[in-house]
Amino acid sequence: MLQINDLSFTFGPGKSVFDKISLDVKAGEFVSLIGSSGSGKSTLFKLVNGLLEPDQGKIVINDGKVKGKRLGSVGYMPQKDLLLPWRTVLDNVLLPLEVAKENKKVKLPEVREWLTRFGLADYEESFPNELSGGMRQRAAFLRTLMTGKELLLLDEPFGALDSMTKRTMHSWLLGLWGELQKTVLFITHDLEEAILLSDRIYVLKPDGIKEWKVNLARPRSPELIYQEDFIRMRKELEWLIQHENN
Q1: CATH code (residue 164)
Q2: Which residues have C-beta within 8 Å of that of residue 15, sequence separation ≥ 6?
Q3: Do 114 and 233 belong together in one domain?
Q4: In which element (H, E) is residue 9 found?
Q5: N or C: which end of the chain has fewer CB within 10 A?
Q6: Rounded-to-integer distance, Cα 53 and Cα 45, Å
Q7: What are 75-133's pLDDT values in tens digits?
């Protein structure tokens, strides 16, 4: 679904962000991207979705089926939900269909079915300021799904939530994952979140990028974080990040 080969990018003389990094995301995978602040995670997202162009290297989306400009070829969800405050939940979710000039009436039954799956059926006429933080993120995630894109870039979507709400969101997403049939590249600073949700993890380091596989069977439960194997994996991942300069 996504191949990045020998990607290099600089913001200016002496300000190299990436130097020939490579990664891949297979169709249907959930892959997380972690690294210290300033390591270039959000910049990589901007390169993938076409907001920036690399100095060298290739970015291939959906086996090259995306031709020309990448802008608009993937679904993107930032940390802030960015729901339009004057639009209801339903109207916010329908926004990608309006932009694509699709027939909203034809899609409405499908959208309402997803609202039910997302636990938002009773709130479709509510405005964003009437929702909890977790509900706002669910609405924003559904709006991203409604773009119809196979590859979703999620930039710390749960980062602004309190720990209890974040745990609830993890449980919700794990329960829904099998139905989504999407490919996700996910930025997070939360190591437990990365391990719990991901099939693989890439660690951005000053000298390149390191792949780390998550050997946990699916389906998964949030209670995994208390198990010995999970704690061991978290320690391994933390060590890898702390020794990124070695």
Answers
A1: 3.40.50.300
A2: none
A3: no
A4: strand 2-10
A5: C
A6: 11
A7: 998 888 899 999 999 999 999 999 888 888 888 999 999 999 899 999 999 999 999 99
